[in-house]
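Blackboard transcription, Thursday session:
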Amino acid sequence: MNSHLSKIVTVEQALEAVSDGTHLMYGGFGGIGTPPSLIEGILQKRVQELTLTGNDAGYPDLGAGRLISHGRVKRLQTSHIGSNPEAGRQMMEGRLDVRFYSQGVLAEKIRAGGVGIAGILVDGDLGEGHGVGKQQVNIAGRTYWIEPAITADVGIIYARVADTFGNLIYDKGARNLNPLVAMAADITIAEVEEIVPAGDIDPERIVTPGIYVDYIVKSDGVKREWD
Amino acid sequence: MIARRAAREIRPGMAVNLGIGIPELVTDFVPNDWNVMFHSVNGILGIGPTPSKGHEHPYLSSAGGSPATLVPGASFFDSTIAYGMIRRGKLDVAMIGGLQVSRKGHLANWVVPGKRVYGIGGGAELALYAKRVIVLMSHVTEAGEPKIVKECTLPLTAKNCIDLIITEMAVMEVTEEGLLLTEVMYPYTLEEVIGNTGAPLYISEQLQTVD
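(Written on the board underneath:)
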């Protein structure tokens, strides 16, 4: 691959796409699989009023939760904030606008965005009140409501291995939303443990095809302490 | 106590999801050779016993964030597949925590008014689509108020979804007619169970007292 076509960049170069008000989508579940070096880079960049979309609010000092505890987030679309009391506090005080979705619905909205489908049909029995005011559809005697797909300006994801084209393999429970975010963001930045030449990963084992990945950065790693 | 009783609802070869809290303890009471596949919404089928100290993997945990291991035959997948399995009816049993359960089997487990908002998480999808849904919870709140009620006052997670309620005091089935008390747990008495329950209980003719 020509060097001027290389997707491998520094954290600072990759994060040129992130500025005040950016809609940022992140992979990770309870902080596991949220790219630590990119989160640190965004913190250092001191951008404000971000809109975040991701599974949960992480922990105050882990994952995307760090952006919330540092007051950089204005809106959050998520399924769960129970592990981040700071997110709950900011929501109660009206500083953080939180929109909750059922976890599988949120994941599927992101996937729809990633595969170019305009929306999904959600079971009318799911989540009392969530479908109020939304367009309804009847199929075989059951009621569904339409949830629009979600895309974002920038997606930040974590993987174990990337090749130089951006083909990705994930790491155990750190896969979660990462392959979906990779597809749904306009610009996708993958933070990885290891970068290998294109051709080194068996094509049968690739989870995310590199066409979805715009930038690759090498991870500085994260220490996770078990309670 | 609750977890040990709950494990008796699991049969060899089942696919089971365990929610955050008391349900997470159930794995310890299920024999390894039963080949039960524990499903976790963070994208794992085949969660094994808790690892010993120093053998944790940073990216291997339950949905609740506790360190985990894998059993032979385990697999990883993304979140849409984790929920696709649930929606498609592949889970035999889901065990979830509860804040309130009504006599009709409605479940509330995501908002503590004025205190904490956790977010609905994956509870609604598990409650609606698992073949059998079992609530594991304390019988009363910290303030001593019944959590089993005629009508839920907290925001609902899902309606008509609960099949069985297991607490430290009792086991109750949700039936068409209402709640059927089948077991009273030692050292509690029938009177204590009734007195701490906010909904009418039908007493099973085969009522058991369990040690």
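Lecturer's comment: The interface with chain A takes residues 40-44, 56-61, 63-65, 67-68, 76-80, 82-84, 86-87, 116-122, 124-125, 128, 155-159 of chain B (CB under 8 Å).
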